Amino acid sequence: MKINLKKIINDMGKPGLAGKYFTVPDFPDSMPLSRLAGFQKESLMEVVKRAYDHSPFYRGKMDRAGVRPADIKGLEDMSRLPFVTKAELRGNPWALLACDKGDISLVQVSTGTTGGEEIYIMNTWEDYYLYEMSAGYPTLVPVERGDIVLNALPYEMSSAGLAFHKTFMDGCRATVIPAGKGGAYSTPAKTIKMMRDLQPTVVITTPSWAMTLAEEAGESGFDLKSLPLKKMWLTGEGCSHSFRERVEKIWGTTANFYYGSLECGGVGIECDAHNGYHLAMAHTAVEIVDPNTGKVMEPGEIGEIVVTCLLRYDTPILRYRTQDLGYIDPDPCPCGVALPRLFLRGRLVDHVLIRGVPLSPFYLEEFLMRLPEVGNWFQFVVDPAGSDRLKIRAELAAGVSPTPELADYLASKMEFGTGLPCEFEIVDRIPRPQGKTVRVVHQ
Ligand SMILES: [Zn+2]
Q1: Where do runs of H (alpha helix) occur along 55-91?
Q2: What are the distances in angstroms from CA 56 to CA 63, 97, 103, 119?
Q3: What is the pLDDT of residues 89-102, one digit of tens each?
Q4: Taking CA atoms, which of 144, 163, 180, 440 is between 20 and 30 Å from 408?
Q5: In 3-state terms, what secondary structure has residue 247?
Q6: Could you tell me which residues come within 8 angstroms of residue 127 by beta carbon, excluding any fewer than 6 positions away?
Q7: pTM score, two decimals?
Q8: CA 246 to centroid of ligand 1, rounded, Å
Q9: Tens digit of each residue's pLDDT (9 = 90 or more) over 288-338
Q10: 183 C-alpha vs ligand 1 centroid, how far in Å?
């Protein structure tokens, strides 16, 4: 069944832009890029005008930068707008409002892995629904009526669980099971029981929770590969290719990633090629900038990912600095979807310093997860001031016995892969996370 997007959007009385551009069969992942660029330009101008006219926060910033809405005539003018930083939003709940406070229908809050005061992101009812209803990506996310989606993301506080609940239930018209993650009732045992009873065709969760659920399934004698899964979606945390391959093997299905955040919503969606995230161009305009100078970089150059939301008019997000690193590749993808691809290169704040060289934990994990003797739970132990060697603390795979020789052997394999001096500590059990998983711990 196809949804009558145009009717829904028109009924909402929102800016006609979404209704003008996104109507069956013109979905963002199948329409010409030139048409999407037309939407991005028009929407940018509309959001900027609304921000300037209705938000003291944005008006002040734009006045200080000497830029007026009339100066923004297209995407090429976006770089004239000032950035918005996490620091500006921390502890400043109502900063982004370009609407009446009473129109806010939903408040969500950052889960705070980077510390500091909370960031609150608010939505009016209209923006919240416009966001998913107007622009689906059915080629990249082929979930439809008849699918049973088990949503094992956290529903509390932040956006992850609720956002995908809305996408799959309202947008895709699928059946959604709000299993949750880490909540009062969302124990792994209960979730596995629901899977056994309801036989989901799609599962969405985080990489580490996929492993936690797999462990529970193993302990209760339930084979996840017996489920009629056609796809698994992973989000909320990153992981290496080799960790993902372990997840896919255990679950017996393809696992694709979503990239997004509380502040910006959906930004990129992986296809089955697992080679970059197709940009969700109907929802966001993405720039890559030099983290030091703020200068916009060329395609292929690595820099900080900066996001502008195109379907949020009442609490605008303009040029938000994510502190994530990546680059954009405009070359065609073998899957046939024309949306350019974003490649992530970790977070500015997460890099570990070994011998003065900043390294992404996913880079290290990639080598570790290729070693069959190593189990699925591990930590990188570092000195915050910088270390001269990489210390790895890990469980062994089932059936592998710990010996000092094995620790030396694994250390040498990691040294060979990473080119870094390594030390290996074999432990019985790494604590399982309730929240986001922690791979890097301090000495
Ligand atoms: Zn692709």
Answers
A1: 56-65, 86-89
A2: 10, 9, 17, 18
A3: 999 999 999 999 99
A4: 440
A5: helix
A6: 14, 311, 312, 313, 314, 315
A7: 0.91
A8: 21
A9: 999 999 999 999 999 999 999 999 999 999 999 999 999 999 999 999 999
A10: 34
- Cβ atoms of 329 and 275 closer than 8 Å: no
| Residues paired with residue 148 on neighbouring β-strands, in sequence order | 175
Residue for token digits 């009016």? Answer: 124
**Cα dihedral 167→169→171→172 (10° resolution):** 110
- 170 and 199 Cβ atoms separated by less than 8 Å: no
Cα of 226 from ligand 1 centre, angstroms:
28
Tell me if the bond preceding 188 is cis, omega within 30° of 0: no
Query: Under CATH, what is the fold of the domain 352-442?
Result: GMP Synthetase; Chain A, domain 3 (3.30.300)
Tell me the longest C-alpha to C-alpha distance in the chain: 69
CA distance 23 to 40: 16
110's tokens: 């950052």
**Is residue 442 within 8 Å of 384, Cβ to Cβ?**
yes
* DSSP one-letter code for 169: I
Q: 174 C-alpha to center of ligand 1: Å?
A: 23
- Identify any residues that bridge with 305 across adjacent strands, giving them in sequence order: 288
